[in-house]
Structure formats: C-alpha cells, structure tokens
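Look at one record.

>
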Amino acid sequence: MSAWESPIIRISRQLNNTNDSIIGGNSSGASGSSRFAGQLGCHVWFGPNQIAQMTDTTVGTLYPGRFRYVRMRATDDDSPAITPGKLVFWDTTITNWQTKYQVTRDENLSSSDNAVMIAGVYIGGIEPGNYGFIQDLGMVDVRFRSVLTAAGAIGSRVYAAGAGDTGDDQGTADVLTTDATSLPNARYLGNAITAPAAGALDTIFLGFHNILPGQ
C-alpha cells in the first residue's frame, strides 16, 4: 500500500507489518536522520470503516481501536520469538523513558513485580531496534497462557499472566475470578469478548493502562 499520512503521523505500510529502521520509514537523505522524528510516541485511531485497509491479514486480525508508534528494545533477544497477541511493556531502564516510547517483551525488566508496566499488545511487524505499532486501546486479540487459572467465558476479567521472563507463556494473558490483591489489579487488561481458551488467541476489550501522553 502507499504511505498514509496525517498532521501527526506517517504510516508507510499496514499497521501490523510496519517495521521501520528509522522513525517514519523515511530519512532526510542528507544525514540519514528521520524527517518524521516527532511522531515517535504518537497514537492514531482507526474506526470500523478504516481498519481493514490498515491490516495485513497474513499477519493477523486488527479491530477498531488506538495504535501507538513505538520503538522495540534492540536487545530483546529472548526466545521464543514474540508473536502477535503477546504483551509488551514500557522499558523504564533508559534515561527519560517516559518520552522515549521504547517497549520490551521482557516482563521483569522494568519493575520489581513481573508484568505490571504494560504498554500494550504486540500486533506484529516490529523487530528489535526498529519502529512500528502496538495497540493500547480497543478490541484486540491477545494470547492466553497454556494453562488458565480459571475457566474463560465471555466477560471474563483478563489480566497479564506474569508467568515469567522466559518460555512460551511470557507476555501472555490469564483469566482470574478475583482481583482482590494489588498485583492482579496492576495487571488488569479488560474483559473478554470471546471466551478465552488455554493457549489460544482470543479477543478482549483493552482498557486504559499505563498510557503515556503522545507527543
């Protein structure tokens, strides 16, 4: 597809296969710096009449919602490889992280408790060290852990599993029947739209969570 531009953001490909080596995917030509550096951290909304043309269906399904342009941490090399539907977290280990908009797949890099600095959901495309989109609000498919804590149903309360920093369950979601403690509260994602199943990719309403202001 051709590039999509607005006063705040430039999108060179579909949202879920954007993998820019420089911000906006276009340099000035003279110094190699981006002409669109100001869009890092910006977000864009796509509604029901727009999202289809912004989706690469060979990567996955996208729904109407809000998408944020971020950088993937270059040294994120844990296995297995991150896949669409897994969670990413704000990287708080870099100076002025609140304005750097860098995300990591590592659950325990940025906080003493696993999986609480949730930035959004990985939708595909971005490789370590490059720039692309995550989803931070709206309907989105998330990957659930291999064994759920509680049975899933439509309307189930969905949380980051916090299953650890390695293995297939890293960055996955879980279903709980209670959120009475502070740690699950910090991991809350939203309510299930489709009944979650162990190891499956199911749809939730992703709510407000650790939303940094855009530029």
